[in-house]
Structures are given as structure tokens and as C-alpha cells.
Amino acid sequence: MRSYIQLALVKAIQRVDPFTEKVLVRAEIQTRKMTTLIQDFLNLSRLEEGKMSLNVSSFSLTDLMEETMSETLTLSSTHVIKYEACEEVTIAGDREKIGQVLTNLVGNAIKYSPEGTTVSLKCALNNGHVAFSVTDQGRGISKADQARLFERFYRVQDDRQGHVSGFGIGLYLVAELLKLHGGEIKVQSDLDAGSTFSFVLPVHAQISKS
Ligand SMILES: Nc1ncnc2c1ncn2[C@@H]1O[C@H](COP(=O)(O)OP(=O)(O)OP(=O)(O)O)[C@@H](O)[C@H]1O
Ligand SMILES: [Mg+2]
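C-alpha cells predicted for histidine kinase:
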């Protein structure tokens, strides 16, 4: 479906048809969001059945970070996205799933912080580990909610920002996918002062394949 939309988009650009171009760009973004959602639900069922397997390879972390950044920038123009690259490093893991972890965290940072604020994506290499973090200047999360955030289907009941849609599975998947990679997700947050989600992965990860 995406390739048909992209094809039509190229035609609209060639024919200088700004209205159709705008509509097709929106359709492309929505299709991408739907794809992410379907992937999340498929991963949820796999985890529940104990059938989540990792497709392990060695990949460049820098490339993955840059891909996540450019995907984010095409999906959202409402926030300032900053990226602090780490040194070039190859890590062993499931590239697609680490990508889903990053996409989920950056997606949340955008979703739960006001337009115009900054979302920073960082990675740093030390002692054979890569430390990642995603920081926002959003609504923050209370200590009580932080304790339950990674539970399946858990969503914070919050009146401060009106209704934001979601299923409460993103962070559950993030936590489970990182566990399979020998990592752990952490949150540091104060109400109304923003949040930082961080995790560490060994450069040569100890990975359970099933
Ligand atoms: N960066 C953040 N700032 C503030 N609250 C957050 C942030 N990230 C997550 N939350 C809170 O944690 C809850 C759980 O997040 P999670 O990503 O699991 O689900 P969701 O975003 O509601 O839905 P989805 O399944 O589509 O990701 C959210 O509903 C939100 O209340
Ligand atoms: Mg989410």
C-alpha cells in the first residue's frame, strides 16, 4: 500500500499538484503509523505465546540511530528533535527490534510533550556498553505511575493534557525486547518537568535467542 501511495506522490510532485501531494503525504504517514501498530500487536502476541525470537546480526548502531532520526523527522514536524551521536560501534542484536524500541520511546516523547519543545536522543559509549537516552520536556510521570509504566496495557490517567490515544503496550514491549537483549529500561521523571527513558546494551550483547 505504501509503495502505491509513494508512486502517486511522485506523480503529484511531477504534476505540481500541491493539494494531492499534501493528502498523499498524510496518507503515507498514517500508513506508517498503522504498520507500527500492527507490528506492536504481533510482537505482543508472540511474547504472550513465548514465541518471540530474535533475528540476531551485527549492525552499526550509528546507522540505526540515524535511520530512527530521519523516520521521526518525516513523521513529526511539531517538535525540535536533537540527536547526539556516539562513536561508531557495531552491536549484536535484533536490529529491527532495537529500532522498534527507539521508535516507541521517541514516539512517546513526542506524544506526551507540548508542540515546540525539544526531544533529545543520545547515545554514548563507555566500558563496552552503549547507553541510550530519550529526553523530553513534557508532562512528566509521577513516582506511582513510574512503578507501573512497563506493565501491559497500563496508561496514566491524566487530565493535564486532554486525551491522547494509545493502547499502553509500547513500553511493555520496550521492556520485554530489551530484556531479551540483556538490557533494562529505566525512567527518570518529575511531574511537569519532563522525562528521560534510558537503557544500556552491552556492545557484545548476551542474547537469548528465544
Ligand atoms: N515520555 C513520556 N512522558 C509522559 N508520560 C509518558 C511518556 N511515555 C509514556 N508515558 C505514559 O506511559 C503510558 C504507557 O506508555 P505506552 O507507550 O506503553 O502506551 P501508550 O503510548 O499509551 O500507547 P501505545 O501502545 O500506542 O504506545 C502512556 O499512556 C503515558 O501515560
Ligand atoms: Mg506509546
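The chain has two domains: 2-48, 56-202.
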